[in-house]
Amino acid sequence: MFETKMPNGFLWGGAVAAHQLEGAWNVDGKGPSVADVMTVGSTEKDREFTGKVLPGENYPNHEGIDFYHHYKEDIKLFAEMGFKCFRTSIAWTRIFPNGDEEEPNEAGLKFYDDLFDECHKYGIEPVITLHHFEIPLHLVNKYGGWENRKLIDFFTRFAKVCFKRYKSKVKYWMTFNEIDNQASFNNPFLMCTNSGIVFKEGQNREAAMYQAAHYELVASALAVKIGHEINPDFKIGCMINYASIYPATCKPSDCLLAQRVADRRYWFSDVHVNGEYPEELEMYLKRKGYRQDITEEDRQVLREGTVDYIGFSYYASMTVASDKVDADSLTDLDEAKVHNEYLPTTAWHWEIDPEGLRYGLNWLTDRYHKPLFIVENGMGAYDKVEADGSIHDEYRIDYLRKHISEMEKAVALDGVNLMGYTPWGCIDLVSAGTGQMDKRYGFIYVDKNDKGEGTLARSRKDSFFWYQKVIKSNGAEL
Ligand code: P53
Fold it and tell me: Which residues participate directly in catalysis (predicted)?
């Protein structure tokens, strides 16, 4: 019916983030990040931000899967699967342990030099996120995180050091991971990981979010400008958590709400791509008196630092109903959400919607007309290790197969310009949301459980051999 092979040069790979797998949280001069003071949680229990390292607590990111000491072995396994690229982040706290130093930490820089060299040894392109839920803790405790304009300078200094140092080793960059998560501004976890904001009693959370996000967008635009000056061949993207947004029914008020929810969630990427705030949001901010600190210079920077592509994660879609909240009363997007009865869910209640990915690829293309990059997709699941050590994860294969198939239709039938596909957690790692190890995404199993027990030994799941075949056939064999 259509060509299922992806275009030549398509970047098949996998994605992770430094704090979720490196471990070595205080090794070679690394400082603590917000992730280092987050306890372990579960489906029932939220992770807790403890402000500092408390004795007796389980902080799963401290050890992660000790990728810091296992990266050679792990990259070799990625190469065996045929990866063309590998997405990870640079831990800000390895380079600037407190975030506000003048000079970077050489040992941290050296680690990423070695890591990128190891990737290139196998022809794997690093794809690098600069800000992925791992803000230096010191910037939170001393400056209040991204509510403070000073963070723009600290971040751009960090970005500049990375761009210069890895000028010839890294071509693909992203600035802020899932910057739009904070549209759920009542969620303390998301505000802390996105923006390093820990709410005080009585604080206006929505106001804080809009101001912090503005500073982040300015910092991102500055980074894009600096990066392009250092190497004009860099491709620097934004990164959003994309969910296709559906009205619960064809009732016009549901449709209007779905449109409003999309506007309130994707204004972040509107600014990244268009270099200016969309009209509806400007009106809203004015009406509410939010984002008071914006200068003419900021607006100029936003115009000059637009992104080259849109990186996005896709896990699930989102359905909204106007009998919960109408378009004009909408503030926190979570208030509009309802379960979509047509969709099955994962054990963590995330709705599974492969067609939503095709819908999203088309929607993003229509809205932005930019190259797209699926930099996360996947399904957290419990895996069972058989007596002989094998792991039969057909549910994972099934999830990925359906999503890749929809992605292929979007490219071959709908003309979407797609750079690559990097499923999330290509090797088991610490979950961002719950801190669990047993919420697994990997093609590679890591022997470690939620309590932190295990040998850290790596082994290949059935999905490993399946994905190897997918890459080898460039997507023709699913
Ligand atoms: P975990 C919330 C909703 C969707 C994606 O998530 C999210 C989050 C934050 O938890 O995060 C992204 O590990 C993120 C990764 C994260 C991955 O999705 O909660 O970029 O760091 O691990 C999966 O199952």
Answer: 376 (nucleophile)
